[in-house]
């Protein structure tokens, strides 16, 4: 699945709850280590999730603090490393949409 196809859905989900695209981008940059140019490059290149995460400069060291359920599955228990990173991102965007402050989201 292309990251660039899911990214607009993340933004729409956040905006429906009066959050911003900038906040979505900040979360993605925090998780992956990309700068804004790198994030936009992958969106423009229609990178799939595997490439997007494989080329990420550095997954944040506090990623293990992300806990909870997404789509009925605990993110900390997802066995596939790629799917776990995708679920971490989903969880962070869910937290944004639910009104958590950025300080709490970015652990």
TrEMBL record:
Classification of source organism: Bacteria, Pseudomonadati, Pseudomonadota, Betaproteobacteria, Burkholderiales
Provenance organism: Xenophilus arseniciresistens
Superkingdom of the organism of origin: Bacteria
Entry-linked Gene3D superfamilies: uncharacterized protein sp1917 domain
Protein name (record): DUF2200 domain-containing protein
Pfam families in the record: DUF2200
InterPro entries: SP1917_dom_sf (IPR023204), UCP033199 (IPR014580)
